[in-house]
Amino acid sequence: MFECYNTENNVVSYLTAAVSSLSSVIIVNDWSIFPTTFPYLLTVEQKENDVTVVREIMKATAKSGNTITVVRAVESCISDESQSPKTFEQVAHNFKEKSIVSISMTAWTLKDVQDEINAQSGRIATAENEIVDLNDFIVQLENDIADL
Known about the structure:
Largest sheet: 6 strands, antiparallel
Mean pLDDT: 92
Number of domains: 2
Order of helices and strands: EEEEEEEEH
Helix content: 25-40%
Low-confidence stretches: none
Strand content: 25-35%
Radius of gyration: 24 Å
Structural class: alpha+beta
Distance between the termini: 50 Å
Number of helices: 1
């Protein structure tokens, strides 16, 4: 089912407090830049020496002031850029204060849009076929009326 995620460009903020892997809320410092319509996907990243060592994609479902309610680990991603080999995982993590919170296009968002376009294309093709059949039926009715 098409989710229709809200999105914005260049939304980047920071956690004002650490977050447990069990928490369903995050607190950000620059809350006013985040959308007030839901849902939207957030990427939270904790860096060490400019390398992301913890990453998670969350779904924002509500916001009150600087507190955003989230569903945790909604999409797989490479969580630790320092790993070799890098692996995808879909796990809720603990995050330290000042971890980066951003809105960005994810694979899930793009796939959701592509799936909806494909579904709508099928519906349009079906409707076009039904219109052709209806036009043929109208022509036949007009011919039948003319023959009366």
